[in-house]
Design brief:
Elements: H1 2-5, E1 28-31, H2 35-38, H3 45-57, E2 68-71, H4 79-85, H5 89-103, E3 110-118, H6 121-139, E4 143-147, E5 153-154, E6 157-166, H7 172-187, E7 196-201
Parallel strand pairs: 1-2
Antiparallel strand pairs: 3-6, 3-7, 4-6, 5-6
Helix pairs in contact: 3-4, 6-7
């Protein structure tokens, strides 16, 4: 409210600043450490970074005023930075589709994330290794992991993650049957009864 009314000239915020705020007095917008968005271990990180930076840039020069956007990065030669500064959505799309096809990511496959949780890290590591081994017996090289996600512990539970790639045309009912069987079989083991195993299909 202070910024909108002119009592404050500078507004510092998180990504929430991009969500639905419309200030007509904004003439300069700064995006600090844009590289942090590009280093997230997710195949959608460039897409999301482009979307966020484009939204932030849209906060400057609203209505009839010309605005300026200052983007701080250690990688100014990165194609994504040029695509953002040139509003090259199509270039981003083409580059991302080529990369996803090369490394087999959606829309060229479907993803299932396998999450495992346990209060003891050592037990969880054994469970994750066993789950990974059994998944590879069924799905072969389409298995990635196990590894620790960016948030590897919530409250008292440690977390491990495995990625399953399902090629187009595969029988999803058979995939579901195999995953449910693996979970039931592993959790019948005395060491893993207190563990949690769940699946996230087509994660957002």
């Amino acid at each position: 409210e202070d910024f909108q009314s002119g009592k404050t000239d500078v507004l510092i915020g998180t990504q929430m600043v991009t969500k639905g705020l419309d200030f007509e007095r904004v003439s300069v917008v700064g995006i600090l450490n844009a590289d942090a968005m590009l280093n997230i271990p997710d195949f959608r990180s460039f897409e999301r970074a482009f979307q966020l930076m484009a939204q932030v840039a849209g906060r400057a020069g609203r209505r009839s005023r010309q605005g300026r956007v200052i983007l701080q990065t250690k990688s100014p030669d990165l194609p994504l930075i040029r695509q953002v500064t040139e509003h090259d959505y199509f270039g981003l799309y083409v580059g991302q589709m080529e990369e996803r096809q090369m490394f087999v990511y959606p829309p060229f496959c479907r993803l299932i994330y396998v999450y495992m949780k346990h209060k003891r890290a050592d037990v969880l590591d054994h469970l994750a290794a066993e789950m990974g081994s059994r998944l590879r017996q069924v799905f072969g090289s389409r298995i990635l992991g196990p590894d620790a996600p960016p948030v590897a512990r919530i409250q008292l539970l440690y977390i491990r993650k495995i990625v399953v790639k399902v090629e187009p045309g595969a029988s999803l009912s058979k995939v579901r049957e195999q995953l449910l069987y693996l979970r039931q079989n592993l959790m019948a083991h005395p060491d893993y009864r207190s563990a949690q195993i769940y699946y996230d299909v087509d994660p957002m």
